[in-house]
Amino acid sequence: MSEHQHTALVVDDDPDIRKVIGAYLTRKGFTVTFAADGRSAITQLDEVRPSLLCIDLMLPESSGYDVCDHVRASPTLKGMPILMISARTMPEDRAYAEELGVKCYLAKPFTQAQFLAAVEETLSQDAT
Asked: 31 — phi, psi (to 5°)?
């Protein structure tokens, strides 16, 4: 990851997961904003335009898939790298996320090292 400032939007309905991911990203040099549901995520995306979206699949209001649809349909957001984080590990969940342009799919639970590796993978795929 380059030294310039990155911003991330972390979307998860579990406040503990948001806090942990936020801490990991802050230590990595990101400015982090948060949303607890899909509808709030869409509002934040349109206002903040982060350089990375870390999103849970199962969310209240709108699913992670719905938010990814919004990102890919938006001319100003469509290239944004997305890291999906979910307890759902079925191959079809990963395949559908890929179809929606998700760069990396990380299964919960995960370690800090796994998360940071997924962030690096997500951002490096974006650069290619």
From this structure: -90, 130
- Side by side, the strands of the sheet bearing 6-11 are 30-35, 6-11, 52-56, 82-86, 104-107
Three-state secondary structure call for residue 100:
coil
Q: What is the CATH number of the domain that holds 68?
A: 3.40.50.2300
Cα–Cα–Cα angle for 79, 47, 124, nearest 5°?
Answer: 30
Residue 97: inside a domain, yes or no?
yes
3-state helix, strand, coil in the chain (%, to 5): 45, 20, 35
pLDDT-derived band at 1 (thresholds 50, 70, 90) equals very low
- Is this structure's pTM higher than 0.90? yes
How many separate domains does the chain show? 1
CA distances from 112 to 1, 3, 7, 57, 93 (A): 16, 20, 18, 19, 23
**H or E stretch including 108?**
none
